[in-house]
Amino acid sequence: MTCTAAVESEASSLDDVINEIISTRISERGETRIDDRVTEAAMEDRKKNGYF
Fold it and tell me: In angstroms, rounded to a whole number, what is the distance separating the alpha carbons of residues 20 and 38?
C-alpha cells in the first residue's frame, strides 16, 4: 500500500530542491500520509497488527 502522497514541486535543479525542502511547511507525516485519511489511528493500528 502506498502510505504517502506526492507533493507537487516546481524545483528544476538540485539547489531548488534543497531550498524547497528547507522552506516547506508540508510534512509527509502531517499532510500526505494516506493512512491518516482513513482514521487518525490507522498507522498505529497497522503496527499493532504486525504490518511493520
Answer: 28
Predicted model pTM: 0.45
Domain assignment of residue 24, given as a range: 1-52
Task: Calculate the CA 22 to chain-centre distance.
Answer: 15
pLDDT tens, position by position, 5-46: 677 888 999 999 999 889 987 666 656 666 666 676 777 777
Number of structural domains in the chain: 1
Please give the full DSSP string across the chain, using - where no structure is assigned: ---B--------SHHHHHHHHHH----IIIIIBTHHHH-TTHHHHHHHTT--
E strand or H helix that includes residue 19: helix 14-23
